[in-house]
Amino acid sequence: MFSLTKLSLITLLLLSCINPAFASSAASMIPHDFTTKTLSWVAIAIFVIAYTFVILEDVIHLRKSKPVIVAAGLIWIIVAMSYAGIGRSDQVDAFLSHNVLEYAYLFLFLLVAMTYINTMEERGVFDALRGWLISKGFTLKGIYWITGALAFVISPLADNLTTALLMAAVVISVSGGRSAIMADKTLKGFVVLACINIVVAANAGGAFSPFGDITTLMVWQAGKVPFGGFLGLMPAALVNWLIPAVILSFFLPNAKPEPKKEETRLKYGAFVVVGLFIFTIALAVTFHNAFHLPPMLGMMTGLGFLQLYGHHLKNTDKSHVDDNRIGRFDIYNQLQRSEWDTLMFFYGVILCVGGLGALGYLAQVSGLLYGVLGPTYANILVGVMSAIVDNIPVMFAVLSMNPELTQGQWLLVTLTAGVGGSLLSVGSAAGVALMGQARGIYTFMSHLKWAWAIALGYIASIGVHMVIYDLSF
Description:
Elements: H1 4-10, H2 12-17, H3 20-27, H4 38-55, H5 57-60, H6 65-84, H7 89-122, H8 125-135, H9 140-158, H10 160-174, H11 178-183, H12 185-206, H13 214-221, H14 234-249, H15 270-291, H16 295-315, H17 317-323, H18 331-336, H19 340-358, H20 361-373, H21 375-386, H22 391-401, H23 407-419, H24 429-437, H25 444-448, H26 451-468
Helix pairs in contact: 1-19, 1-24, 4-6, 6-7, 6-19, 7-10, 7-15, 7-16, 7-19, 8-10, 9-10, 9-12, 9-14, 10-12, 10-24, 12-14, 13-22, 13-23, 14-26, 15-16, 19-24, 20-21, 20-22, 21-22, 21-23, 22-23, 23-26
């Protein structure tokens, strides 16, 4: 998605959610080249203006979803007018259907993940985890490393987006919640650095697994790299995370989180909800691996099980003890608490970038990169582009062009597309989701402040990969 798109989805979420058969047919759709037309330039201008509003969200206090949703509608009007002018209006529906389906997969996947996290929060799971971490004497710096390491290890299996949401929930809970963080400058600084660390770790971890990111899934499905071949990216991915993680750790406070004054206890059914969440992630992977179905379907099936268990929680006498009255728990309350600005932002970004792709911009950029710069420089720039335009459409364009690349080069573009989004907060689904989860704390500008450290990790990871696979410029 533009990185936004990438963000959007893109992320694992989308990540894991793409349908192989549909991806194959989508790759065969060749857009007409309208890049030299005035209307297409207007579309680019609209996108840049909308993106500027997203960047300035903290200054103008305009939710990031609003400008991109409007921009998406305007860009697709331009797409429709452009194709009507050459008598190919029917192709517009094919492009739009592909982008809407991509969004539907991402939306449903994310909605389930957010609902589970909200339910675990309501059952007191994160408060209990906070109490355990504090009781063990971990400092904020220790929690920073624990959550970062877990994000790196879990994301190859659960996907980077879900992993980032989960780890960020832990960080926010340990810090005492949003109100406490906003009132304490030290805590706010810690949460910003911890969120950056989680985003970088989750994206890096997702790069060496077919299930960790949408781009790795796409490359694997296209047959460019065998399943086990992605493990070759682990050393470079580890370097990509550790370098900025070490740099940021020097700026962490040495304080310990304040213990909660009231006693923390889990509500009835908390462990069952955690177990259902793990089972749901396993379902998503199984649906894709065993049945070649979109992971989204496994997530939605898991949501169904949570809804059934929620009915039990709503009516059991044991829940009555916890909630003071039967019926207080309602699974739909947890659905409503999802970060809707983030979900709608994904819609706007995916359709914006999809519209630009339909006008021929992504194909033109991809052709320019591989035709003029050569594979190594092109693959490095793909990562930079993924922080701005999103890795999904960029990778679609690369796969559609199908340049002659060695496996080492295919792994390089997989690495850069996966971790390049960490350069900006809107460059990956994980970053976008965390901006919503830690609204007003972890922002575009707070992430941009440390982009230089993330860039050092990005450059170093490329160097490590080139040495391992003996690549040259």
